[in-house]
Amino acid sequence: CTLQAVAWNSNTAPETLQLIVEKTDNWRTLRAVARNSNATPEILQQIVEKTDDVDVLQAVARNSNATPEILQQIVEKTDNWCTLRAVARNSNATPEILQQIVEKTDNWCTLQAVARNSNATPETLQLIAEKTDDWRTLQAVAWNSNATPETLQLIAEKTDDWCTLQAVAENSNTAPEALQLIVEKADNLCTLRAVAWNSNATPETLDIVNKKNRLALQPSSPFPL
Fold first, then answer.
1. Dihedral sign computed on CA atoms, order 6, 8, 9, 10
2. What is the pTM of this model?
3. CB–CB of 70/60 below 8 Å?
4. Residues lower than pLDDT 70 in the chain
5. Residues of 23-57 as b/e, b for ≥16 C-beta within 10 angstroms?
C-alpha cells in the first residue's frame, strides 16, 4: 500500500518509480506507476514486459509517454477491447498499429476509437466501414478527414441514421453521388442543411434540398425539423 501511494504521487521522481517497478509484481502498484506522468518510456517498457494484466496494460496505453513500440507490444499481448481502445486513443499509435487493432476486433467502442484517431489511414477507415453497421462507429469514420469518397459512399449506402448521414454530408471528401443519395434518403433538416453547405453538391441535389425544405415548413409536414 505504501509503494502504491508513492507510485500515485505526481511528485515522485522517475528514479523512484523505476525502483518500485523493480521491487514489486503487485498489479495495483504497477498500474499506479503506469498512470504516473513521470513514468518514462523505459519504465513503461519494463512494466509491459513484467505483466499481462489488462488493467496495467490499459494504464500504460493511456500514458502519453508510451512509445509506438510499447503500444505495439500491448496490441500483440492482448485481445481485451478496453486495452485495445486505450491504445487506439493514444496519439502515438501508428497507422500500422491502428490497422492491426481493426483486424483483431469487432468491438464498436474500439473501432470507434480507431476511427477518431487522425493517424487512421484511408484503408483502415474503409475496413471499419465494411466491418460494422454501428452508427456511432460509422459516424466517427465519416468525421475523419482521411475517409475517401468510396468509404463515404459506402456509409451513405448502408445507413439511414440521420446523424451519420449528416456526418457524411459534412465531409468535404464526399462525392456528388453520395450527397444525392443522402438527399433522397433523408428528411431531417439538419442533414439536408449539411448537404446544402457542401460545395460538391450539384444543382440537381440542391434543388431536391430546396423542395424538401419547403415541404418541411408547411403546416402538418411529415418531415422532421
1. positive
2. 0.90
3. yes
4. 215-225
5. ebebbebbbbbbbbebbeeebbbbbbeebebbebb
